[in-house]
Structure formats: structure tokens, C-alpha cells
Specification:
The protein is of the alpha+beta class and about 425 residues long. It is about 50% helix and about 15% strand. It is built from 19 helices and 19 strands. The chain has a six-stranded mixed β-sheet, with helices on both faces. Strands 2-3-4-5-6 form a five-stranded antiparallel β-sheet. Strands 8-11-12-13 form a four-stranded antiparallel β-sheet, covered by helices on one side. Helix 1 packs across helix 4. It is globular, with a radius of gyration of 25 Å.
Length: about 425
């Protein structure tokens, strides 16, 4: 599938090559050009030059050169179409496609996307107007979702029938199965994948419909609270983030992505005036997620109980910070309150929690010390020991030592005593 030539020209014209390259390396103005260390090879003396007026770059060290599209292709390891799509997303340009040179793989994918998009539209209309969806509409109102939010996020309703959707869409068996919207049962009859659930449609970063997250209604005897689309060519949960298609513009503007656990949490952030949130699709945050978000922002704010993630998550977060040049921080939310709830009761507090987010390690240290008894010598000693176990997780000697001094002051312990304890094996 090819992108219309006029749209490629528009993307090139709208792409500020200096702003794009400074996502990956620092540049400084030198006369009519911008210079900096090359992001494609290791060097100590800047040999990388950018001409903003012409929209091109060149490295006099390793000889790479090109325009904004070339740069994104090389840095993100994308093909031409994917690179243009990424830049179009940053610039807010909606692309048009033609069928010229469309390969069999792209044609097949397009058919699957069309099938999921048809299901999104059908389920959404069912929620808005069908009598059997009244219970779902009432539940969403009780959760604080407005009609405008339901429409903006295209939320849907899957009725209880076994084959209501597939009968309505009348698609071939292979498309039903490969798209994940249904399956063919043992009697060779098409069957809906989702029944009796509120559906949150999931789109990829380019806005293509790829799957669903389905929430069961309260009182159901189904023990699975959420059921997601199975792994398909389109839907790979370790690489997808709910609402990135809607949030990416604000994420680029803020240079900050908010990561939640729930779909309604994302909607809550939008209600609070911070439409820069995404959610994982029934899985923990993965490196693929981080790599995807790094295309849009340098900062990640975790809007879930990061302390519960514990040591295993901490190791991954610190590694991602180092390898992807990220800053990971945590929005300190009231205990036991999720973002969706806080958006309903105090949206200003939710927005402030993001603005006042603290580094991941500081969040965990503060949690430990905040839960400790600091009025006794023994309590302060236990608090210091617990805080050291958290500090020990960080790979940087300099960062660890800064927190050692902070803990020493709050626990009234000599820093050298804590430094010595930190050196002992755990």
C-alpha cells in the first residue's frame, strides 16, 4: 500500500528536522547550520551537521546523510511507509493511500484491519442504541463516563448471543479467525469472540483498528474480568498501547507519556485535561512498549502502584533509562485510588500528580521511609536498612550515593555508616 505522493511532500514540509534530530542528540546553532555529536556513530568531536532550511543532515565522520524520513528510517529501523506514518503522526497529518505496488502481505493486513474496524463500528452502535445494552450504558454512567467520552473512545457492547456480530458482518471464515473477532467452532459455524462485555477498541499507533479489550459486567459468573483479542497478525499485546493513536500528539508536545494499567484510567486523564496517557493491554510494560514510546517522548510517568512492581520491575526500569535515554518517574496517587476514580472526584489533583511526579527510586525510598516509625532509634534504623535495600537496586554509584545522603539525614545516621552497609553483600 503506497502513500499518496502529495501527502509525502506534505510530511516532508511539516517535519522540522532540527526538532526531530534533537530527540536523539543535542544540537547547537553554528552560523546558518546546527551541529552536534553524530547519533549514528561514537565520536567526541561534533561532525554532524543539519541544514534546517533545506531539511537535510550530513555526518562528515561516517558519511551518513539524508532528510527527516531517512533519519527516522535509520534510527527506528523502519521501512519507508512506516517512517512517513510516524512523522505524519508527529505533525498531525492524516495520510491517504493508494493500491499502487501493494504487496500481498499489505493487502491481507488491510482486509483484517477493515474487519476489525467494521466490528468496532458495529459494537459501538450497539452500545449507543440497542435495548440489550442498557445495562452497559448504566454501568458506564455509574463509572462516571459521559456520552461524549463513550463516543470519543468508540466504546462498544458485545451482546450475549453466540454469533450476533459475525452474522451481521458476513465475513469469510479465514478473515473472522485471523482478525481475532471470532472463530469457527467444531460444527464449522462462525462464533463471536466477545459476548456480554463492554469493549474498548484498540488501535495501533497509526490509528488502524487491531483488537479489543472486553470487560465483563458485574455479577457475571465468568471469572475473567478482562478478555482481550488473541494474538494475531494485527494484535500483539507486548507491542501495543491503548490510546496511543489518540494521545501521541499531546505526548510529543509534552515530551512525556503517562502509562496506566486500565483503559478507564486513560479516559480519566483525558477528562482531567491531560490527554497524554496510554495503557498496556493486559500485560506488564515491556521493552517493546518502551521503545515505541521513546519515538514520541523522553519521559515516562508511571500512573500505577509502582511500589508493588517491586525489585524485578526496578531492574528493568533502570536498564531502560540507561539504554533508551529515558527518565522514568512516578505520579504519587492517593493510596487505593486509581486515576479513573481521581479524575471523577478531583481532576485537578490527578493533573497535579503528573506535574509533580518524582523519579522512580525516590518514589520507592519515600514510600519506605513514609511507612516507617521515625520517632525511635530502632524505627529509624529499620527504616534506613529498608531504604538501603531499595537504593541497592540502582546501577549508578553516583545516584546511590545521593540517596544514601538523603536517607542519612532523614534517619539521623552518619552517611559513612550507610555507605559501609551498602557495600556489604545483601
Amino acid at each position: 500500500m503506497g502513500i499518496v505522493d502529495e501527502d509525502i511532500v506534505a510530511v516532508r514540509a511539516a517535519s522540522d528536522i532540527v526538532a526531530i534530530i534533537t530527540k536523539y542528540t543535542q544540537l547547537r546553532r553554528s552560523g546558518s547550520r546546527w551541529v552536534g555529536l553524530c547519533p549514528f556513530h561514537a565520536e567526541k568531536t561534533p561532525s554532524f551537521s543539519v541544514n534546517q532550511e533545506l531539511g537535510v543532515y550530513r555526518c562528515w565522520g561516517c558519511q551518513v546523510s539524508g532528510d527527516a524520513i531517512t533519519f527516522i528510517r535509520e534510527k527506528e529501523q523502519l521501512d519507508f511507509v512506516a517512517a512517513v506514518e510516524l512523522l505524519a503522526g508527529w505533525a498531525g497529518i492524516t495520510l491517504r493511500y493508494d493500491d499502487k505496488d501493494q504487496g500481498a502481505g499489505r493487502m491481507r493486513r488491510a482486509k483484517l484491519v477493515d474487519a476489525v474496524a467494521s466490528a468496532v463500528a458495529w459494537y459501538h452502535e450497539r452500545l449507543l442504541s440497542a435495548p440489550d445494552a442498557a445495562v452497559a450504558r448504566r454501568y458506564l454512567r455509574e463509572r462516571g463516563l459521559t456520552g461524549d467520552e463513550v463516543r470519543a473512545f468508540q466504546i462498544g457492547w458485545a451482546p450475549e448471543g453466540w454469533d450476533t456480530l459475525v452474522k451481521a458482518l458476513r465475513l469469510p471464515d479465514d478473515i473472522v479467525e485471523e482478525s481475532g473477532i471470532g472463530f469457527v467452532n467444531r460444527t464449522r459455524r462462525q462464533t463471536d469472540r466477545f459476548r456480554g462485555r463492554i469493549l474498548f477498541p484498540i488501535f495501533d499507533a497509526n490509528g488502524d483498528a487491531v483488537g479489543f479489550g472486553g470487560r465483563v459486567m458485574p455479577g457475571s459468573d465468568d471469572p475473567r474480568k478482562y478478555v482481550n483479542t488473541p494474538e494475531t497478525v494485527l494484535y500483539q499485546k507486548s507491542k501495543l498501547l491503548y490510546a496511543l493513536n489518540w494521545s501521541k500528539g499531546r505526548i510529543v508536545k509534552d515530551d512525556r507519556a503517562i502509562v496506566c494499567e486500565g483503559y478507564t484510567d486513560v479516559i480519566g486523564f483525558a477528562r482531567a485535561g491531560v490527554p497524554a496517557a496510554v495503557a498496556t493491554c493486559g500485560t506488564a510494560l515491556t521493552e517493546e512498549h518502551v521503545r515505541l514510546l521513546r519515538r514520541y517522548a523522553r519521559r515516562l510517568v508511571l500512573a500505577f502502584d509502582a511500589d508493588a512492581a517491586g525489585q524485578a520491575a526496578a531492574e528493568r526500569f533502570y536498564q531502560w533509562e540507561r539504554e533508551h535515554e529515558l527518565e522514568v518517574s512516578v505520579a504519587a496517587l492517593p493510596a487505593g485510588v486509581d486515576p479513573a476514580e481521581l479524575a471523577g472526584s478531583d481532576p485537578e489533583a490527578l493533573a497535579a500528580a503528573v506535574e509533580n511526579a518524582v523519579p522512580f527510586l525516590k518514589f520507592r525510598v519515600d514510600r519506605v521511609l513514609g511507612a516507617a516509625t521515625m520517632s525511635t532509634v530502632e524505627g529509624r534504623a529499620r527504616a534506613a536498612e529498608a531504604a538501603l535495600e531499595v537504593i541497592r537496586e540502582h546501577p549508578s554509584d553516583l545516584v546511590r550515593d545521593q540517596y544514601v545522603m538523603e536517607v542519612a539525614g532523614r534517619c539521623r545516621v552518619e552517611p559513612d555508616v550507610l555507605r559501609a552497609a551498602l557495600q556489604r553483600p545483601p
